[in-house]
Amino acid sequence: MTAPTPSAAPVRSPGAWVVGASSGIGRATAARLARDGYAVAVSGRREDRLAEVVREITDQGGRAFAVPVDVTDPASLSTAYTQVIAGFDGPLEVLVCSAGTNVQNRWWSDLTPADFDRIVDTNLNSVTRCALTVLPGFRRHGFGQIVVVSSWAGWQYMSAAGAAYGASKTALGALVQTLNDQEGRSGVRATHLCPGEVATDILRTRPVPPPEEEMARMLDPDDVAEAVGWLAGLRAKVCVNELVLTPVHNRMYVDTSAYRPQEAGA
């Protein structure tokens, strides 16, 4: 009598945790990683928005679950991490830090200490908290990808960003370098991802929001999500330390360029 063939072990999907997933770049990134085969934990403060993201992903055949979190609250983050790990049947391999904020009154003449602190706490300190939370598990696993969604303002000076946003995003570049310096030998890699202008709601917080025809030329969240998917899919030995992507019609150049098209051929 032939012995029964043992059933194959269930497939254990790698896990991805997207912080700031309720809208914009984070939302698009969660959907992209789910299409790439990750089980995705989506986090943010707006539970109704997170439920929508989970529904969209699962309707497309992906795996996702919501874990509400306030990344400015260490206790909330610790609780969320426990829930994230419990929700996966495989290892957590990817952390995407996409939470960010700015204020309309961003010039020195209007900026308040409270607004400065809030922006830095969300854009910079929360990334530090998230990294410290996942690093022990990444080290044990021998691999981990951290994608820090920064900004053109984190790569080049950008006047429109204001003092607090520019300072917080610029500091992320140094933060990522320390991760690659100290954690790369444990198999952990990090990327400072610097998109140019992306057509998201945060642009409407500018003192002078861009007109709709200009927003139509910008990157959209799916463009940035595609870059995150590419980063996550690279072989484990490859690290992209910094990645800058912009729209072809890049207003960062157009608005400051000495070149004028009518001068061509003159």
Brief description of this entry?
The chain has 266 residues and is of the alpha/beta class. Helix content is 41%, strand content 14%.
Write the layout of secondary structure elements.
Layout: E1 15-19, H1 24-35, E2 39-43, H2 47-59, E3 63-66, H3 74-87, E4 92-97, H4 113-141, E5 144-149, H5 163-183, E6 188-195, H6 212-215, H7 221-233, E7 242-245, H8 251-254
Parallel strand pairs: 1-2, 1-4, 2-3, 4-5, 5-6, 6-7
As a percent range, the share of helical residues equals 40-55%
Mean pLDDT: 91
- Report the major sheet: 7 strands, parallel
Strand content: 5-15%
Q: List low-pLDDT spans.
A: 1-10
Which sequence of SSEs, written as H and E, runs from N to C?
Answer: EHEHEHEHEHEHHEH
Structural class assignment:
alpha/beta
The number of strands is 7
First-to-last CA distance = 90 Å
What is the radius of gyration?
A: 20 Å
Strand order of the largest sheet: 3-2-1-4-5-6-7
Q: How many DSSP helices?
A: 8
Molecular shape: globular
